[in-house]
Automatic annotation (TrEMBL):
Function: Formation of pseudouridine at positions 38, 39 and 40 in the anticodon stem and loop of transfer RNAs.
GO terms under biological process: tRNA pseudouridine synthesis
Pseudouridine synthase I TruA alpha/beta domain: residues covered: 6-106, 145-247
HAMAP family documented for this protein: TruA
Keywords, ordered alphabetically: Isomerase, tRNA processing
Organism field: Lactococcus taiwanensis
Enzyme Commission numbers on file: 5.4.99.12
Subunit and partners: Homodimer.
Name of this protein: tRNA pseudouridine synthase A
Active site: 53 (nucleophile)
UniProt similarity note: Belongs to the tRNA pseudouridine synthase TruA family.
GO molecular function, one term: RNA binding
Binding residues annotated for substrate, in chain numbering: 112
Catalyzed reactions per annotation: uridine(38/39/40) in tRNA = pseudouridine(38/39/40) in tRNA
């Protein structure tokens, strides 16, 4: 068996998330169908760097999988996967990795981006690619609040119920908001790991702060109390993108 690493992108609109689920269309399931075909119809189970929820997109999700036989031509394998998977999945790159390399457990950092349209009326052309909020937002207040998220913290208060992870301490290296134009914002979060719906819960809180319905100091209260009830609502999934996964062998993590 030979182990391969692939970098993929997908439009999450019509998927029930990344991970396989019974009677649901998922990214994992669609790719495994093609891999099994390329593996002489012997089942192939892939592993991802992490899960994304229903409606969430990815520019740079990373997976790994094993195929039997001699080493494949990497570009031919990439092309085969890219052309045989559905149009809402793209296979951007395929690489060889050691047999013990693991997309999830190899040390890495992730970058997420969240796109928000802030206008009186929602653009029909962006309804699947950006979240929407129609009321005024104070950019400076959101900038002040998001800076409080940088560093090592216990993010229990930003975690959705259902998380199976015991250790909720994570480090965020970068947290910023960019005003793209008068009606569009981009939130950027880069860290050594993120909890279940953590990014969407942080964005939902920042939106409430920007709309003057929470004080900037609410971020401190959420981090200190470790209580989800003090955070804002979970922001809509269509604005969230897994931008990039960087592994320790390629970066100073």
């Amino acid at each position: 068996m030979t182990r391969y690493k692939a970098t993929i992108a997908y439009d999450g609109t019509d998927f029930a998330g990344f991970q396989s689920q019974t009677n649901q269309r998922t990214v994992q399931e669609e790719i495994e169908k093609v891999l099994t075909k390329l593996n002489s119809f012997e089942p192939v189970i892939l592993q991802g760097s992490g899960r994304t929820d229903s409606g969430v997109h990815a520019f740079g999700q990373v997976i790994h999988f094993d195929l039997k036989g001699k080493v494949r031509d990497l570009e031919r394998l990439r092309f085969g996967l890219d052309t045989q998977t559905p149009a809402d999945i793209a296979v951007k790159k395929v690489e060889l990795v050691p047999d013990d390399w693991h997309a999830r457990y190899q040390k890495h950092e992730k970058t997420y981006e969240y796109y928000l349209e802030n206008s009186i009326t929602r653009s029909p052309f962006q309804r699947h690619s950006k979240a929407y909020f129609r009321y005024p937002l104070n950019f400076e207040r959101m900038q002040e609040a998001i800076s409080k998220l940088v560093g090592e913290h216990d993010f229990t208060g930003f975690t959705a119920s259902g998380s199976s992870v015991d250790d909720k301490v994570r480090t965020i290296y970068q947290a910023e908001i960019i005003r793209l134009d008068e009606e569009n914002f981009k939130f950027i979060f880069r860290g050594n790991g993120f909890l279940y719906k953590q990014v969407r819960n942080m964005v939902g809180t920042l939106i409430k702060i920007g709309n003057d319905r929470m004080p900037v100091s609410q971020i401190d209260k959420i981090l200190t109390s470790k209580n989800r009830v003090f955070a804002g609502p979970t922001a809509a999934p269509e604005g969230l993108y897994l931008k990039e996964v960087k592994y320790a062998e390629n970066t100073d993590i």
